[in-house]
Design brief:
Layout (H helix, E strand, L loop, with lengths): L12 H4 L17 E14 L17 E17 L2 E12 L21 E18 L4 E4 L8 E4 L2 E9 L21 H4 L14 E9 L3 E9 L11 H4 E2 L14 E13 L2 E16 L2 H7 L13 E17 L2 E10 L13 E11 L4 E14 L2 H8 L17 E13 L2 E11 L10 E11 L1
Antiparallel strand pairs: 1-2, 1-19, 2-3, 3-4, 4-7, 4-10, 5-6, 7-8, 8-9, 9-11, 11-12, 12-13, 13-14, 14-15, 15-16, 16-17, 17-18, 18-19
Helix pairs in contact: 4-5
Length: about 450
């Protein structure tokens, strides 16, 4: 049965507030003492009916569905002292992803938070201090953006970020596939899905990130708190989120955390820039074991991941590549692997992932601010994780009550149009084969439209 998109009270901002924007925001400037930015993104996604031999607790409804999401951010930054900036981001969101963000692990909308809501909710998603320590030598211009004040900085520098922010603000970035508000929408194309990155249920947490930047490389390390319960809120959400949610809670700090490190190497091939990043992570939380859950399952009692909960580790690795191959044409890829033994805690159920894609600016057809993108995704599970779903287990996104396993395969293409100044709209199509790793369901075609503006 098709569902009607939620009616929201925020979409009118997409029409009214772009008139306030001007093109001076991103122009080179002297050192800023403060700035502010606004963004609004509205996404409508839906899919027609598809073939399914059965459905389970987390399955996409096979009769078709349409849903809408809205986000609005008000962001501000201020210079505290030389090298130090403080930033705050207040976000309001409303709406639901299809099936309330269940049933596909490469979920088709990165703007679909797990906390879907019919009424606007709000949160302080970022509140952090960034201290930059110059090491001397050559300097570079840093542009004004939503989380950065414009000015000059030493190329050789140490940067310390402390407070509430997204681990994705610092790690696993990619010029062509990083932001579902302006680029590809799929979760697997905004981040490495095999990285169970530290976050609450809306993608943010408290932590510290350290970066050593040199002319051709950067080394990063981060330590973050994680929620006490899988796919839930962290303790500071009791203060920073409204309406109030008393379930928000951290685990013991010595036993519940996420660590990540990344090495980035920048280079050029015949004057075409490229970047390669290698990521490694280690998480600890009160996780269940997939194999223990399978061993305890019976014909009348499906696998229960919580029954084997104990403080365990989960680790993995990622590779992230971006390369310009011609003016206005770039390619990218991510590869990811996790150990696949213990419970996915925060992001997705994926243990192995491979993505590759192409991004083309529209200068060749006299539309220099338009973008065409095309990408493919393959997501997989470890053997014990496959057995867990086959025994009726449920995860963060998947769990059909049974499993005829196959790699989840996704193709996404989009075209982003510049309408006026900072107002863009996009049309998006995603073909999803074996949704939630199940060959007995699908394929699914997801159609989407997006409106986005920022200044």
């Amino acid at each position: 049965m098709k569902s009607r998109p939620a009616i929201n009270s925020l979409a009118f901002f997409a029409v009214l507030l772009p008139a306030m924007a001007d093109d001076t925001t991103n122009s080179p400037a002297a050192e800023q003492n403060w700035n502010w930015h606004v963004q609004n993104t509205d996404i409508l996604q839906g899919y027609p009916g598809f073939s399914s031999q059965y459905s389970g607790p987390n399955s996409l409804p096979n009769g078709g569905q349409a849903r809408e999401t809205v986000s609005l951010d008000l962001q501000a930054g201020v210079r505290l002292w030389p090298g130090a900036e403080a930033h705050i981001d207040g976000m309001m969101w409303q709406g639901f992803g299809v099936n309330n963000a269940l049933g596909v692990d490469g979920f088709p909308s990165g703007e679909a938070f797990r906390l879907g809501t019919a009424e606007p909710n709000g949160a302080i998603t970022r509140l952090f201090i960034r201290q930059t320590i110059g090491l001397g030598g050559e300097q570079e211009n840093i542009a004004d953006d939503q989380l950065t004040l414009a000015g000059k900085q030493d190329v050789s520098r140490i940067t310390i970020t402390l407070g509430r922010f997204s681990a994705k603000d610092v790690f696993d970035n990619n010029a062509y596939a990083n932001d579902p508000r302006t680029q590809f929408m799929n979760w697997a194309l905004m981040a490495n899905e095999a990285w169970d990155y530290p976050a609450d249920a809306i993608g943010y947490t408290t932590g510290i990130a350290l970066e050593l930047n040199q002319p051709k490389w950067t080394l990063r390390y981060g330590f973050f708190q994680v929620p006490r319960f899988s796919n839930s809120l962290t303790a500071e959400d009791r203060i920073f989120k409204w309406p109030y949610d008393g379930s928000a809670e951290d685990g013991p700090i010595l036993d519940t955390w996420g660590m990540v490190s990344e090495f980035e190497r920048r280079y050029a091939i015949k004057d075409h820039p490229g970047v390669i990043r290698f990521l490694a992570y280690l998480n600890r939380a009160n996780m269940g074991s997939y194999q223990d859950a399978v061993n305890a399952a019976t014909a009348t009692s499906p696998a229960d991941i919580t029954a084997s909960a104990a403080y365990r580790y989960k680790y993995g690795f990622g590779l992230n590549l971006e390369q310009e191959i011609a003016k206005n044409v770039g390619v990218f890829s991510r590869l990811g692997w996790s150990d696949g033994n213990n419970q996915a805690w925060m992001f997705s159920d994926v243990d192995y992932t491979a993505t590759a894609g192409l991004s083309v600016k529209g200068e060749a057809w006299q539309r220099p601010d338009d973008t065409f993108g095309l990408a493919g995704v393959m997501n997989g599970l470890s053997k014990s994780h496959q057995d867990f779903f086959a025994a009726g287990g449920t995860g963060i996104l998947a769990g059909d009550g049974n499993l005829n396993y196959g790699w989840e395969k996704i193709l996404e293409t989009y075209y982003d149009f510049k309408i006026w100044k900072t107002l863009h709209t996009s049309l998006d199509y995603q073909f999803i084969d074996n949704p939630a790793f199940n060959q007995d369901r699908g394929p699914v075609s997801v159609f989407g439209a997006r409106a986005h503006w920022e200044f």
